[in-house]
Structure formats: structure tokens, C-alpha cells
Amino acid sequence: MKKINQKKGVFVYINYLLTNAKNKTIEYLKENPKETRIHFKDVLWISTENMAKNWIKIKAIKHEKLLYENRSMVNFIRIAGKQEFCKIAKNLTVNLFHIKRKSNLAIIELTNGDTFKVNRSYRSELRSRLLMIWEE
């Protein structure tokens, strides 16, 4: 397991609402599915255990464990799609990310099959965030 310290940025769950992780519980999130934002500072542990190559799993938010029985909940996302974006992102994957900005330069693909186009500046920002985690 890797510990995240003093990171900046945002993870986003598409299925939950979370404006401040320390004020919500996992049970609350399961009962109130909406869009969720989780800041790096709220993420304690990530792991690659039992994950496919280049996949990262978030194991704990503050002192809450992430345990999801319902696989239809999108708790992992795959960065894929257009070849140009795969090259830049190096096929890394991180859970809890959802994009709403759109352009014709790159695509983010969620595990539920939804795809979102993203612009070049966002693509660079996302790559930087991923590398910060992956190079820990």
C-alpha cells in the first residue's frame, strides 16, 4: 500500500455526493447516490493489490474503509479511448474521476461505458495528477 501525503487535486465519484469526506460516512453515500468530489487530502491509502496492471484502488478515505458490494457503482475508471490520449496518460487508471468538460482532443472512458471528451489543458492536468500518485 502507498500513503498519500499533502496532495492537491480532486477525485470525483460519479455516483455519490461528497463535499467533505470527513463529514460524510460510507453508509450515507450509499443511501444518497449523487456526484461526489473527494480531495486528495481526504484520501489516506491507495493500493494496487489484486488490481489489473496500471490500476489503482483507493482503500481508505480518512478513517472510512471503501467496501462496495454493488458492482454497478462506478468505483473505478479506466483512462482509455483515443490513442493520443493513451500515450499521454500512459494508460494509467485511477478510481473516482469524472469529467464534464468536452472537446474533440481526448476521451476519458468510465467502466460503465460512458465516455467523455476532454480538452488539452485538462488532459495535461489529469496526467500530472496521475503521475503524482503513480510515482509515490
UniProtKB/TrEMBL annotation:
SMART domains: LytTR. Keywords: DNA-binding. Gene3D superfamilies: LytTr DNA-binding domain. InterPro entries: LytTR_DNA-bd_dom (IPR007492). It comes from the Bacteria. Residues 33-131 form the HTH LytTR-type domain. One of its GO terms (molecular function) is DNA binding. This is LytTr DNA-binding domain-containing protein.
